Amino acid sequence: MNILILGSGGREHAFAWKIAQSPHCDELYVAPGNAGTAQVATNLPISYNDFEAVAKAIVAHKIKLVIVGPEEPLVNGIVNFLKARPELARVKIVGPDQLGAQLEGSKDFSKNFMLKYGIPTASSRTFTVESLEEGLAYLDTHSLPVVLKADGLAAGKGVIIAETTAVAKTALNDMLVEAKFGAASSKVVIEQFLRGIELSVFVLTDGLNYKILPEAKDYKRIGERDTGPNTGGMGAVSPVVFADENFLKKVEQKIVKPTLRGLQEEKIHYVGFIFIGLMNVKGEPYVIEYNARMGDPETEVVLPRIQSDLVTLLLAAADQKLIDSDFVISNQTAVTTVIVSGGYPDDYEKGKKIAELERIEDVTVFHAGTTTNGDGEVLTNGGRVLALTALANSLEGAVNKSQKAAAAVQFEGKYYRKDIGLDLIRYND
Length: 429
Ligand code: AMP
Ligand code: GLY
Fold this sequence. Notes:
This protein is an alpha+beta fold. It has three domains: 2-84, Rossmann fold, CATH 3.40.50; 123-192, Dna Ligase, domain 1 (2-Layer Sandwich), CATH 3.30.1490; 197-426, D-amino Acid Aminotransferase, Chain A, domain 1 (2-Layer Sandwich). It is built from 14 helices and 22 strands. Helix 8 (132-141) packs antiparallel against helix 9 (165-176). The protein starts with a strand and ends with a helix. The structure holds adenosine monophosphate and glycine. Adenosine monophosphate (AMP) binds next to strand 17.
């Protein structure tokens, strides 16, 4: 069958890489894709935010299965849009509808959902500009640090961890009154700070049944030892040593099952991935956030560990038959190191020629922000440029291979973190 992936990052290249290996995949398309997806699929020069163009491409290329990579089109209702088109009635789509995507699109919605279904999370209250005074008074009595979250999508920038009440009050004012994140901060969730270690668990669901995918740890900050501003993610590791069987059982019982029950009771028909950002607080899992999609760069370590055919799994999810599907996960450790453009996450230059790519060995090279010029050369085209994933029998082995490859890639201004996975190696000791 013909398959379309929407998106253009490392996550979408990893999906394309895995799907291209499936015997069920005939023609594979990615919209808009990058230089890496072009190696395994046909890129379509359309924006995933142009729903009409996506619908036309599905018809033109006889697509039978669509995978929506990023959150923006999901939160904006691409699934509802496509499902409402009679000519697309038989197309299977992996991704939640607009209501399901509210798990990510509204922190207030997801907090209420967790409260209603008894899912462990930080205690919180939501404020609007009308309740600003109450919010400021609430901050006076709140423990420190305190966490403030813009309700809507804010490109990963909507969370502020305030160490003092004064900083928290300024942040609340900036978000509600000054509309710092536009409409996304017309509501603000104020929540308790959770102390622990973070990790993410991923679920593929057909709305009733589910498969728990390999868990992963992401490295969000730009600087080594988790310093400096947040990024989209500078690297990832799977499995995560401190997520032992006992902990993952708790995640399934206390979080995954009640989440699925809640979706059913709310009559949200959810087909797709649920990315559960968790804090391990002294061995107990708490939800920090839900995302309605896979993570990037987590996908670049999760998919390489799935040995089963991904297309079979995705079709089973779309057909509500996930219960019957084979699901085999490799015991190997996957580590990805993300190479970024100098300056990222602030301003950076694009269009730098990437050298030595073809000489990189022992890793899978996932492209994120790349493009090609008229001579077929690969150029940087974004903040995050490449994700280099290594698989090995040990964490140390995978870290070494990924880092060696990261050192070998050359482009002007290149930067990467040299400490991906090192905290987990120390955790083992
Ligand atoms: P989010 O955008 O919800 O992923 O939040 C960004 C980051 O802020 C998370 O990855 C955590 O590191 C941190 N964070 C969010 N909520 C909390 C919390 N309640 N306690 C501690 N850290 C948090
Ligand atoms: N790496 C975090 C995310 O995809 O949201």
